[in-house]
Structure formats: structure tokens, C-alpha cells
Amino acid sequence: MDQRKLRYFVAVAEELHVGRAARRLNMAQPPLTRLIQQLEADMGSALFVRTRKGVQLTNAGSVLLDEARNLLLLASRAKERTRMAGLGRSGRLDIGVFGSNMLVVPDLLLHFTRSYPDVDLAFHAMNKQEQLQALYDRRTTIGFNFLGLKLAGISNEKVRSEPLVVAMPATDPLADRPSVRLAEVAERPFVVPASGPRPNLLDFVFALCLEAGFRPRISQEVADSVTAVALVAAGFGVSLVPQATWALQLANVVFKPLDHDRPASVDLHCIYRTDDTSLVLKAFLETIEATRQD
Question: What domains are there in the chain, each with its CATH number?
């Protein structure tokens, strides 16, 4: 249906006077009259009844007025959404998330949703391996991963560095210390997050312990840092976890800064397909760069 005719029809229907509608549309009256007559022919029904004071809508005209307003609104929205999509300001972003990764990114997500309110975010709970497969299958656009992935076709964008802290039972003799050195917990069993392709957090923890002069005694290997903290609360040992897990505040768990000879932190990365040219992805990566905390 011709949008121009519909706009002209709505103007006449709202003014109930062809002359006033013509002035509103900045056009002469005779062409407007002809366009309304063409529209009536297209509809196969009279839309107006002519009166001495102007025109009145027929029943068919009243129905068309409601439909025309809806159609014009939908067309306007479609045009605007298309324009916004072309600018990367609308669309959908499918995100693979896992465990403690989500504890690190709320500020980033809040900043993005405020800057791009018309982009729909869809979250999918996936471990490291599942995130990778979903990216290759194009079921997701991005994922989040500590330490990143050095794999063909996958790119990494650093989000932030996250210091590691020691999670330990509140009853531990070291629980009152302001900080803890790794060598001081060498005899404790370790609960270690270890999942997905190597290297992972298990490798990083092992390297730190070796630097401190001991091999950790692993009591449990778990999927993520959230589970590790829960097992620390249950008395299974101590764990090195990203500082963001501090927010969990579980009973019987305290978190202590790690006193180490060098900064002990892990980088959270946003992972995505190298060949993805999505403008929404580009906007998200720009938001990471703008909000990055190094």
C-alpha cells in the first residue's frame, strides 16, 4: 500500500477538511483531492462523505484511519531500526557466560546497555569448551574467558586484569591476617578451578605455587571459581580465585589478598570470531576499550 497516499489520507481524516489538509501538507488542494479519489478506488469504498463544512469519515474511512496510523508507525519504526542496525546501535548480541566470569563484567554490560539500549542481549550458560564450539557454530557472538584462547579463527579482547585472592575457611589460623603468602598455605589442600582447553586456571595456579617453592596438593578440581569457593566453605581446603568472587560472601569463607613476589592476576578476555564483521560486535569491543581497567 502506497505510504504517501496513506499519509495524505490521515491528514485529511484528522483535519476533516481537504483545504486545511492541503495547507498542512504544503501542497495544492486539487492534487490532494485526486489522490484521495485514487485511494478510494484502490479500497473499493468511499472513505469520506462531503459536507458543506468539509468532510466526514465513513465507516470504512474510520477503519482505514486506524490501520493507516498503525502501518505508518510500523514503517517509521522499521526505517529507524534499519538505520540503527546500520550504525551498530540495534540488533542482538548472543553471549556465552560461565561461572565467576559473570562476576567481573556487570559494569561493562551496564555501560553497554546504557549506550546501546536497542541492542538485545541474550545470555547462554556455557563452559569454556561449549563457548568455543558455539562461536565456531555461529550460535553466539562473544564469550568471556580467563587467560584467553590462542586458537585459529578466535580473537581475544582484554576486558580487565583480575587479581587473585586466597579463599580460605574462616576457621583457618591465617584468617585474621591482612594478606597471605602462598608458602604459608603450602600444606593445605587446594581446590582448583580447571575446565576447558589448556592453559587454564589450574596451570596458572600450579605455576604460582612452583614459584613459591612447592607443588600444590589438589583435593578437588572443579568447573569454576564459584564452585571452588563453595567447597572452601565446606572445608575442602583453600583456593586461588579471581578477586570478583569476593562478592559472594559465603558463610565460613574469608578472602585474603595474595602477597606474592610479582603481581598475581589473570586477564579476563572477550573472545569472538576473527571473521565476524557485525557492527554490534564492533560496538561492544569499542565499549570494552572505553571501559577497560588495566
Answer: 3-86 (1.10.10.10), 90-158+267-291 (3.40.190.10), 162-266 (3.40.190.10)
